Amino acid sequence: MPLSTDTARTILVIGGARSGKSRYAEELLAGHGGTRTYIATAEAGDAEMAARIAEHRARRGAGWRTVEQPLDLVAALEAHCRPKGAVLVDCLTLWLSNLMAASRDIAAETSRLAGALPGLEGRAVLVSNEVGLGIVPETALAREFRDHAGRLNQAVAQAADEAVFIAAGLPMRLKP
Fold first, then answer.
1. Counted domains in the chain
2. Active-site position among 32, 56, 80, 148
3. What is the DSSP string of 17-75?
4. By C-alpha distance, which of 97, 98, 99, 74 is closest to 87?
5. Which of 13, 20, 31, 119 is packed most tightly, with the most Cβ within 10 A?
6. What tens digit of pLDDT does each residue of 14-27 get?
């Protein structure tokens, strides 16, 4: 049973790789009576990623509309997060990777996303990876990614109504 309340409009679900974040986020919206939209930020650049995407689609099943949006996440949220609808964004760290690869202004994009969350008209659940709990990455690019991810997660957690950390498939409420 999810910890999250039915009244929260924006929820950040964060945790490590394969911790159960996406499944938990999907469960939060399982009983939603309106349109459920899955905003996918991943791009199938190789066979392994294509298989992961297929696994997620199969697990969600019918009843979900999928919108692929690797870069303009705010526009996708504003277009699909309607009063009788709910949106699941999976995931923010893949979105961050896409932004970095496209040489976008990460601070501006982070600020734009955090600023848009309170004004969304429907329910939004955003999934992100916590990448800062391990060892310091070896390369400058990996350290830059870790630092951007940490700042992104902080900004989204601050703007969200709720934040839930998933570890070993178990939810722990961080906010409120």
1. 1
2. 56
3. TTSSHHHHHHHHTTT--SEEEEEE-----SHHHHHHHHHHHHHH-TTEEEEE-SS-HHH
4. 74
5. 13
6. 999 889 999 999 99
CATH number of the domain bearing residue 58: 3.40.50.300
Give the predicted TM-score (pTM) of the model: 0.92
Joined together, the tokens standing for residue 152 give: 């992104």
Directed axis angle between helix 73-80 and helix 106-116, to 10°? Answer: 10
Catalytic status, residue 32:
no
Which position has the token pair 């159960």?
A: 20
- Measured N-to-C along each axis, helices 106-116 and 92-101 cross at an angle, to the nearest 10 degrees, of 140
What tens digit of pLDDT does each residue of 24-61 get?
A: 999 999 877 788 999 999 877 788 877 877 887 777 77
Residue 124 counted as domain residue: yes
In sequence order, the 6+-apart residues with CB closer than 8 A to the CB of 6 are none
Does 3 reside within a domain?
A: no
Would you say residue 2 lies in a domain?
Answer: no
Identity of residue 130? E
Residue 5 lies in a domain: no
Cα separations in angstroms, 52 against 28, 37, 47, 87, 114: 21, 18, 9, 20, 27
